[in-house]
């Protein structure tokens, strides 16, 4: 079919093609996920050079091709300059882009996914340093919710009993089961997987070869502390308790005061394993997340 068409899209991936072109993977409002060639975009002074960059939103005029369509015109709407100025923001954006790629459909409108993702990038680009990781966790949860697979956070996924974080009981813990779909009491967790002891949610590098439910290395059950459960339960809220609004969560089972910031790493890790399991895909940017945020913790006083 010959002709041209117009779409509004955001660049999710870019690969060199030929001597001077780029092959772009684009999420569009009108036609969902698509691939198109940005002809000559790698040439110096190309009018498509900056417009073919990562996370740039463009109005596009595209010519149909036999195998791949070609971008003939592009008008930039937004480029999220704040992302490229902070490695952690850029890495978090790449992480979210992978989740978008897992769930985006082709040849049908994806306006809700497009608007959610672009709003998430806008929030990240303007975020303060201490807000990046909480925003990443909330954005991951929102993408899971849009896909219809968000974990259950406020009641036991086995018994349906309401679960609230207990900051008064020494060594209080609650379970989280990735296969079962969310938080659960430790008794219920024992019924689900009686032969496997859940582990504390420690921040660690993903093992090479992990692949969702097919991996024997992926951790699928966790023990969460009260602050970690509290952090998870904040994710559906419009406003997250971050920075000055973050409570100091004193615990009898801890030797020192525990702040909510200490729990966002665990929150991201739980959601990471949950997403990898339910999408049955590895989040490859997760290794960069580990490197960025683990380094920042080591440098903090």
Structure characteristics:
single chain, 301 residues, alpha+beta, OB fold (Dihydrolipoamide Acetyltransferase, E2P), 2 domains, 11 strands, 33% helix, DNA repair protein RecO, DNA damage, NA-bd_OB-fold, RecO, DNA repair
Word description of this protein:
This protein is α+β, with helices and mostly antiparallel strands. It has two domains: about 1-125, OB fold (Dihydrolipoamide Acetyltransferase, E2P) (Beta Barrel), CATH 2.40.50; about 150-290, no CATH class. The protein contains eight helices and eleven strands. The protein has helices at about 80-85, 85-105, 110-125, 130-145, 185-190, 225-235, 260-280, 285-300, and strands at about 5-15, 20-30, 30-40, 55-65, 70-80, 175, 180-185, 200, 220-225, 250, 260. The strands form three sheets. It has a five-stranded mixed beta barrel. Strands 7-6-9-8 form a four-stranded mixed β-sheet. A two-stranded antiparallel sheet has the order 10-11. Strand 4 (about 55-65) and strand 5 form a beta hairpin. The longest helix is centred in the last third of the chain and has 19 residues, at about 260-280. It is elongated and about 65 Å long. Residues about 205-215, about 250-255 and about 295-300 have low confidence and may be disordered. It holds the Pfam family RecO_C. This is DNA repair protein RecO.
């Amino acid at each position: 079919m010959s002709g041209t068409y117009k779409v509004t899209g955001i660049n999710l991936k870019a690969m060199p093609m030929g001597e001077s072109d780029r092959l772009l993977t684009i999420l569009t409002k009108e036609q969902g996920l698509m691939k198109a060639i940005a002809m000559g975009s790698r040439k110096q002074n190309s009018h498509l050079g900056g417009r073919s960059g990562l996370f740039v939103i463009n109005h596009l005029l595209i010519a149909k091709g036999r195998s791949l369509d070609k971008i003939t015109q592009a008008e930039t709407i937004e480029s999220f300059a704040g992302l490229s100025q902070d490695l952690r923001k850029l890495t978090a954006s790449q992480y979210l882009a992978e989740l978008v790629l897992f769930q985006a459909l082709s040849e049908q409108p994806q306006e809700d996914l497009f608007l959610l993702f672009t709003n998430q990038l806008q929030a990240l680009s303007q975020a303060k340093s201490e807000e990046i990781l909480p925003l990443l966790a909330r954005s991951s949860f929102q993408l899971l919710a849009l896909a219809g697979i968000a974990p259950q956070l406020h009641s036991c996924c086995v018994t349906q009993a309401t679960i609230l974080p207990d900051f008064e009981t020494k060594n209080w813990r609650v379970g989280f089961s990735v296969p079962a779909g969310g938080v659960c009491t430790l008794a219920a967790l024992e019924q689900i997987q009686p032969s496997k002891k859940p582990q504390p949610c420690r921040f660690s590098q993903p093992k090479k070869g992990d692949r969702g439910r097919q991996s024997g290395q992926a951790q699928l059950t966790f023990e969460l502390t009260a602050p970690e459960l509290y952090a998870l339960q904040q994710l559906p809220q419009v406003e997250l308790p971050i920075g000055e609004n973050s409570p100091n969560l004193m615990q009898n089972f801890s030797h020192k005061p525990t702040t909510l910031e200490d729990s966002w790493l665990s929150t991201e890790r739980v959601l990471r394993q949950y997403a990898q399991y339910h999408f049955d895909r590895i989040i490859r940017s997760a290794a960069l997340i580990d490197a960025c945020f683990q380094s920042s913790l080591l440098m903090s006083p």
